[in-house]
Design brief:
- The structure is a homotetramer.
- By secondary structure, chain A is of the alpha/beta class.
- Chain A has a single domain, classed as Aldolase class I (TIM Barrel), CATH 3.20.20.
- Helices cover 46% and strands 10% of the residues of chain A.
- Chain A is built from 12 helices and 9 strands.
- In chain A, the strands form 2 sheets. Chain A has a 7-stranded parallel beta sheet with strand order 1-9-8-7-6-5-4.
- Chains in contact: A-B, A-D, B-C, C-D.
- At the A-B interface, helix 3 and helix 4 of A face helix 3 and helix 4 of B.
């Protein structure tokens, strides 16, 4: 038995035309670009998808249209992270109705739950979910870590099928990976920060949920495959390419929003989709856009 | 001209019978208890009201019923803090339709906005609001402070009418209070932590938004009035009474949820309302409930 | 029985001519200025005194010369905070030999000790101290809080005589003050941040250890006395004066060093002492110095 | 040109008999054990060496005796991290007099320096150092990161020869490694957390400064060599062995001190040296010691 999800599953950006208005044509191009790039799945409504900033109406619309465009060619995992269990559960049911394969949740993120409270939260959520659940460790934004005890419990729940770790803490990743190895060979361990993708795969991870794969999916798939096959030389080459690109592309803006802004701006420059962002963020100004254009040109990554 | 809101405006707990079900009879008793206790307003859907944990449907129901019960006897300020501007704005419009007096927002709390982003967020939110806005500084849960530059800008916006500060940082409170003093004598400065209520009023604050005032409103009103009239002897007596009570009542549970759990449990013991809590929290177990009962009995605060 | 130390006990800056060289004439003027201003004691080698940045040789020299200049006119409390218990104990013995009245220690600040470890640390330190000890809560710099359990234990130790709290958390201050009230009326509760001096004294604190009292000791003594006698009107006036001054004086520089730099620069402009600072800090550049001069002139506080 | 330091350079524990008393015989056995295990150098007075907890007298004694025992067989790098530049510089001169090869400093750790202040600090320190300097990034304990700007400056300083990174943030490690690659091929990049040793070497790091190498030096040297030669299979085996051991050995105690306590206790059980610890820590109690003994026995790592 092997991990259910393996490979690159990009946390899809949400193409918007304006506030609360989806860029449908852009969405189709984003999805086709990723599928053409060899991704192993698509993950809408994650952090890169600005999910918490979107209205529930738009989230539903996005799930529905993503599902229609993908048409089963790759699995879809939908983020349902919320502060309200009722809303999380409703979104999960709607996602299931649209044929989505799995849902993904982080910890509820207004009140920082104690670990026993977090476990109870998951215990209450599970029966509401018609499809499998993947956990999403994102303490920088949720204030709450899925600690070892929770993961040990989760490994015993058939309905929970893996962990996406965006903590940036590779020691945590490896520790949790070890816990599941023998009892749950079907669990998928996916890593968030693209700068750690190579290492995570080399050390037994199953894939990456990397924002940059919205932009250059093939590059991330190449790194994944090099690492999976143990080709160190290629891992170094592709890692360096990603590092060189992302270290420039994500540092044009200030604040934590720089990464999503950089990706959306680059996609807009490449003619893929609009770069409108949901509040509290906004698209880059012209001067920043020019710097992104210059970076893209200099790196000339084939899509 | 004086501050619009002065006195105790309790952050109302949300009485629940079970998940997504309001305890209507309890709600009425909670509200009547507060009004009888002399409060200057009621603030549903704040942190103590577990707002982020509630479904939007329930939030609307709560606003509607609160409004019907209060019937204009005191002002109602409704929390609209959200991660999605679209949802915040919708809730504000609904609140206005139900005759609410003002809305209250903290920073969007999944993505930590940079200060310029936070200001743009407010600039976009203001035109959507049919009623005045109060800011709510709650960095421990939102990760974002309303820093001096934002407050200086907000003082220039007629539509923004004050600041509720739950940071626990009295230096911040005094600093912001000084900024508004001369240009905006109508601004209300309300303090969150009840352990600082006396000091905040003595130093020019206008009122308190204190969780414990759900339980013993008169005690908080007494402290407010003593402080407002500069009666130091009485300030010390009432402060000590609140401190003695709250330091026990809020430390029965572990984790940050101990305060809300303690208040709801005490209200339940007093026959006011049910103590069901929205996920990720849950009501106290029997042993904790017995400790709360013992504390209540020992302190014997007249409601 | 009343608290041993009451009033303003400035955390004395360390006047330096250059690296590892005391400004002796400046030291004398600083001390005489404080004593003339009515201070109730002097606290060399605290945070404002840049103690951790000084060589041990200089620390000894400073204690010796401070002791000679003060000549018993006011008590001297010497900071012995260190990462090494052996060095702390040695400094305490030397301080006692020079006739110092008490020593002050925060938590050891490289390794963050668990609370039981912190208690054992104090248990090992006490027998090494020939004079009484005051605790100093400074978690922003030491990473470790003296939590309630430690304070409860400390109240039982005759040799420990009080707490200086620089956390800025007035709820903590009030909570610890309540614990000692009845068993140890001799304990002194001194507050660090000068912006909270008035409130802390009004609520039962015994004094302040405020950096600004190096500069304008009389102003802080005035506030202390107004608060002690319950004169709210005067408390507001003096508080506002301190706030107005400090909010400008301490915000000329960036980084946490802005406060000490501001005080030393102002003292230098007033002809009291040199403003050389120990590494990793350095005195203000000319442009910053001019801003400090302008602030001093505008406020024209009589020394 | 290649990196000056390559391989495993254990951060040597400081064997103590009691407070301020070196365990000389233990020291000799610890050093011989490491050299026999194939280490590429020895690093006394780091975090694992409890340096900040030791008196200066003992630090000098330790340098002298370490130097005598090592007799030039491997390089010695001595930690001089301090809050006082004067004391750091003095220790560096003494270390140079004893024939030490290089010194290592983290940021001064009481006052958190701004980045320009940190750079000035290093600029002032460099002329005082008779031997080369390695930087040591340890933000969890010093509160200050050596950010990119500092590292870029440091790469231009001939006297600075590398970076030891104990942040646990492999993205930071890789980012800094990239900066130095071309201008300073002689720079050494050493990684702290042993759980990341394999990955760090695979991705271009030059060695590890890993606490566990006090105990089982050969195991860490084996992992280093496997990673250096790109033998992924062996990297996984040795990584797993280290992970399995350390995840148990370092989690017997609570608090951050658990790692050093675990290593010293294990060395004591193996008859290598005493496990006395400097305040604020203390050796394990008997029950914890028994658990360490059980773990050692179960893993049966050959030294």
């Amino acid at each position: 038995m092997t991990a259910t999800y393996q490979g690159i599953i990009p946390p899809m950006i949400t193409p918007l035309l304006e506030r609360d208005t989806l860029d449908e044509a852009g969405l189709e191009r984003v999805i086709e670009r990723m599928i053409a790039g060899g991704v192993a799945g698509i993950f809408p409504l994650g952090t890169t998808g600005e999910a918490p900033s979107l209205s529930y109406r738009l989230r539903r619309e996005l799930i529905e249209k993503t599902s229609r465009i993908v048409k089963g060619r790759v699995p879809i995992l939908v983020g349902i992270t919320d502060t309200s269990l009722v809303e999380s559960a409703r979104l999960a049911r709607e996602a299931a109705d649209f044929g989505v394969d799995a849902v993904v949740t982080s910890a509820p993120f207004y009140f920082p739950a104690g670990q026993p409270e977090l476990r109870e939260y998951l215990e209450q959520l599970l029966p509401e979910l018609p499809i499998p659940l993947m956990l999403y460790n994102m303490p920088a934004l949720t204030k709450t870590v899925f600690q070892q005890g929770i993961i040990e419990w989760a490994i015993d729940q058939e309905q929970i099928i893996g962990l996406k770790d965006s903590s940036g803490d590779l020691v945590y990743f490896k520790k949790m990976r070890r816990l599941a190895a023998s009892p749950r060979p079907d669990w998928s361990f996916l890593v968030g920060p693209e700068e750690l993708l190579g290492e995570a795969i080399l050390m037994g991870g199953h894939g990456g949920v990397n924002g940059g794969a919205n932009l250059f999916p093939r590059l991330y798939v190449d790194l994944y495959e090099a690492a999976k096959s143990g080709n160190l030389e290629q891992v170094r080459i592709f890692s360096e390419r990603i590092f060189a690109l992302s270290s420039e592309l994500y540092s044009v803006g200030k604040y934590g929003s720089a990464i999503i802004k950089g990706i959306k701006c680059a996609l807009s420059l490449l003619g893929v989709c609009d770069d409108f962002m949901a509040a509290p963020f906004h698209r880059f100004h012209e001067s920043e856009r020019e710097r992104i254009a210059e970076i893209l040109e200099r790196h000339a990554v084939p899509s």
